[in-house]
């Protein structure tokens, strides 16, 4: 639709429907149409829309004190949220740096790792290793770390040269027939060790990975033991491990942090999206106490900072979000409803000739589509299948997160579901029903 909008929209010149109200899992547009938000936008709205406790906390904080620059003040909201986050964080993580979104938080984590090495006397460690087909954000540092070739292609020449990429851990496509999970995990992790040795261990600052890969691969968890191997390799070579849980963290997979299910702790954990649940833009870096100690004992200041770091209204809203999730035991609902949704999708679409894989954890699920199930052959990308699926579902009032380039940035199609943690059993069935209808209709 073209009109007189002055907003630079995602698809330039194309104005999407105007969202005017949100309630629970529903968004209502200005023309009265209702859409079921089965993907939380982009795995953001984990409490659903219009939660009164969060709205109250947000407006109370705005009335009391909307903003105080962190070079002058700290606030109760920032202090209380940091304390709550550290209490729930994996062992050893002790200090929180607040940002305004996931990309800023990833930039911060990369820079924190870089400066940490300098504070501890190593000036050569600057190289960042990440994985192919990962996504870490759209600012230049985060995009440089990201391994999705399609997203990187437009910025050729502008990305950081000291980055490189190793294999993801993706059993559906890379585990060999007859290969055990542990052998596959070892083989995938070995690509990191080989890359560290190629670059030279004294030159590598950090390895960054999504615990469960979100947007670009579609909810791919690691095989058991893979991240344990990664942790050991990082320790062996003094490389900091950054886990990006911007999308998969803060309860989305059924535990507060996805890495809890892997039995490891990173040196730096990055969170965003579900932290503020869409009520406010907020991201955070939670770092190990020893990293913070190095700054205190060293230069005393992190050469970093943004105007809206630790914004009181954002912190107050996130504090209310996290209290709601804990007091209503919503992670139990994530596990229960997640299992139901997985089952409902498998029942309806598990045998569909073009559904190659149904995967994920908790309320973080994806379907990968293939032309040929046996060969796992993708559709011709020119067909833009994921777009057709998204548009068809949207026409039926269902919001799903659809992405192409699953395999190599070009080929492959998947769709991702990430409904609110508050979802009811009937809504789970409704998502499966409408999605099935959309899939059948597209094929
Ligand atoms: C894993 C991951 N990291 C980082 C980001 C960037 O976050 P933001 O879009 O809030 O900048 C995203 C966004 O989708 C993400 O999924």
Report what the structure shows.
It is a single chain. With 443 residues, this protein is of the alpha/beta class. It is 38% helix and 17% strand. It contains 14 helices and 15 strands. It has helices spanning 40-43, 52-64, 76-88, 102-119, 140-145, 149-153, 171-174, 181-199, 226-237, 289-297, 312-327, 330-349, 385-395, 425-442, and strands at residues 19-23, 26-29, 34-37, 93-99, 127-131, 163-166, 204-210, 240-244, 268-271, 283-288, 355-361, 364-369, 398-399, 401-404, 413-417. The longest helix has 20 residues, at 330-349. The radius of gyration is 21 Å and the shape is globular. The model has no long low-confidence stretch (mean pLDDT 97). The site of pyridoxal-5'-phosphate has 15 residues, from α4.
Q: Which features does this protein show?
A:
single chain, 443 residues, alpha/beta, Aspartate Aminotransferase, domain 1, Aspartate Aminotransferase, domain 2, 2 domains, seven-stranded mixed β-sheet, four-stranded mixed β-sheet, globular, binds pyridoxal-5'-phosphate
What is the strand and helix layout of this fold?
Blueprint: E1 19-23, E2 26-29, E3 34-37, H1 40-43, H2 52-64, H3 76-88, E4 93-99, H4 102-119, E5 127-131, H5 140-145, H6 149-153, E6 163-166, H7 171-174, H8 181-199, E7 204-210, H9 226-237, E8 240-244, E9 268-271, E10 283-288, H10 289-297, H11 312-327, H12 330-349, E11 355-361, E12 364-369, H13 385-395, E13 398-399, E14 401-404, E15 413-417, H14 425-442
Parallel strand pairs: 3-13, 5-6, 5-7, 7-8, 8-9
Antiparallel strand pairs: 1-2, 2-3, 4-10, 9-10, 11-12, 12-15, 14-15
Helix pairs in contact: 2-11, 3-11, 4-10, 8-9, 12-14, 13-14
Bound molecules: pyridoxal-5'-phosphate.
Pyridoxal-5'-phosphate (PLP) binds next to helix 4.
């Amino acid at each position: 639709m073209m009109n007189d909008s002055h907003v630079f929209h995602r698809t330039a010149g194309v104005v999407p429907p105007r969202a005017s109200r949100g309630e629970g899992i529903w968004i209502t547009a200005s023309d009265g149409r209702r859409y079921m938000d089965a993907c939380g936008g982009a795995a953001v709205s984990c409490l659903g829309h219009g939660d009164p406790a969060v709205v109250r906390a947000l407006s109370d904080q705005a009335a009391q004190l909307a903003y105080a620059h962190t070079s002058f003040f700290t606030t109760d909201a920032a202090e209380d949220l940091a304390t709550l986050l550290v209490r729930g964080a994996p062992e050893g993580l002790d200090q929180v740096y607040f940002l305004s979104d996931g990309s800023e938080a990833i930039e911060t984590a990369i820079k924190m790792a870089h400066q940490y090495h300098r504070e501890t006397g190593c000036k050569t460690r600057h190289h960042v290793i990440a994985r192919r087909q990962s996504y870490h954000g759209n600012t230049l540092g985060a995009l440089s770390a990201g391994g999705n070739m399609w997203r990187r292609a437009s910025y050729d020449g502008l990305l950081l040269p000291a980055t490189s990429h190793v294999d993801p851990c993706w059993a559906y496509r890379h585990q060999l027939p007859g290969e055990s999970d542990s052998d596959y995990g070892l083989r995938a992790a070995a690509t990191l060790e080989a890359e560290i040795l190629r670059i030279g261990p004294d030159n590598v600052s950090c390895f960054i990975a999504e615990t469960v890969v979100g947007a670009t691969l579609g909810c791919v968890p690691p095989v058991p033991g893979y991240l344990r191997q990664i942790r050991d390799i990082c320790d062996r070579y003094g490389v900091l491990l950054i886990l990006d849980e911007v999308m998969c963290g803060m309860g989305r997979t059924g535990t507060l942090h996805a890495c809890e299910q892997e039995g490891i702790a990173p040196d730096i954990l990055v969170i965003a999206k579900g932290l503020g649940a869409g009520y406010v833009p907020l991201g955070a870096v939670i770092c190990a106490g020893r990293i913070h100690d190095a700054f205190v004992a060293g230069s005393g200041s992190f050469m970093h900072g943004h105007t809206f770091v630790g914004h009181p209204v954002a912190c107050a809203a996130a504090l209310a979000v996290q209290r709601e999730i804990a007091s209503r035991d919503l992670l139990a609902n994530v596990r229960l409803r997640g299992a139901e949704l997985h089952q409902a999708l498998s029942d309806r679409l598990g045998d569909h000739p073009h559904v190659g894989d149904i995967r994920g954890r908790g309320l973080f699920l994806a379907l990968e589509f293939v032309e040929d199930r046996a060969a796992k052959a993708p559709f011709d990308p020119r067909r833009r299948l994921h777009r057709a699926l998204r548009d068809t579902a949207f026409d039926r009032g269902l919001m799903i997160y659809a992405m192409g380039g699953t395999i190599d940035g070009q080929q492959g199609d998947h769709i991702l579901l990430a409904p609110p943690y508050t979802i009811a059993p009937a809504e789970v069935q409704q998502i499966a029903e409408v999605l099935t209808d959309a899939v059948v209709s597209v094929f």
